[in-house]
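Good morning,

Both structures are done.
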Amino acid sequence: MCLRKRKNAIKNGYEWRWHSKVEENQHDVCNNLKKGVRGSEKYILYLWKTSGDFLQSQWDKVFELLGSDVDTIAIWGTFTYTCLLYWIVASFYTFIDVTGKPKFAVKHRIQEISSYPVPFSSVLKLGRQVLINQFLSIPFYMVGYHLMVLRGYDTKKSLPSFQRAFFELLFCVLVEEIGFYYSHRVLHFPFFYKHIHKIHHEWKSPIALAAAYCHPIEHYFSNLIPAYLGPFLLGSHIFTCWIWYSIITFSTLINHSGFHFPFFPPPERHDFHHLKFNQSFGALGFLDYLHGTDVEFKKSESYRRNCWSFSLVPVKDLYPSDPKNN
């Protein structure tokens, strides 16, 4: 609008009316949003209560199955639950890794390597070490539980509120990331890498089952302890611990899977770590940014592809390699 027309518009009140109309529309939008929130509030609360009642009924069944002995639930229940979850989820990925089928799933593999599908003998080697680590974790569960008892934790049969569980899980994510990042950096010191961490890095193109394929010392130092610290510091309810261990199990299996499936969290960061060795030590990335251990990752194709995908088209086809990098 030129200056003369603008002056006329102001003089005739057009601009004032235009601004008033915009403000009126904004006010209407805000009012509609408020009405929508108020209208759905009862439904959300009902959904919240219903799901809470369902979870409570399922938790009561756990007590019926394992008895009212909290020691049994905290130690053996946690051990059994986490091991079963690990193997059930890993088995789906392992089937693809061994058979190379279905073909549409293999298209989502991050690294294209000549040694794929994976020889079954390699899977057996992985499986043996994973089982060893899982059984060696039993003393950790025992000691960890008794430390929780000494510290004091939520022993009520009733489940914690949604708000409390949610914020405790956020805290656990932060603590685990800090613990994992720095313990992982230590494991890359030459002495510890040579004698401990090198086992885990046998897989430059990892598979899901390799998530817990490592030296037992590493399993304690970098897997179990960082995951345990959050619930211990907060004195979390056993149910919250199980939810947290579920998140950790799914996360580590996906990060090591070697597949970037649609609707799943992107595993590009940790896959790049296995490929390049000295980059991307963390899971979330903020500590890598802080310490400058993501410089090469940010220059890579993996960084461009490190995003959630909601397309059935493989991410590497959505973000093809730059010819300049070839």
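Second structure follows.
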Amino acid sequence: MFYKLDIVITETQIKISFGIGIIKKGFQIEKIVDVKPVRNPAMVGWGIRITPGYSLYNVSGLDAIELTLKDKIRKVRIGTDSKDEIVEYINKIIKKS
């Protein structure tokens, strides 16, 4: 189930899905206050993790992007090997809005 994580970014949302797509989640671009590259601690692990400060969706590695969303206390982290490129792309979309 957690062998791959697909990330699809459109002009209006970020969609993630694990494996064959049974577990899916979406985040509206208009609700993103901030996005930045981060590195997760090794002890957090992989899969879906809920920590005191953020929810993590990850399949491998320690690199991720962190989304700060309007009206949400907990931040969202999405694991990726392309964190800098994804952050840059999302910031371009946010600036267009």
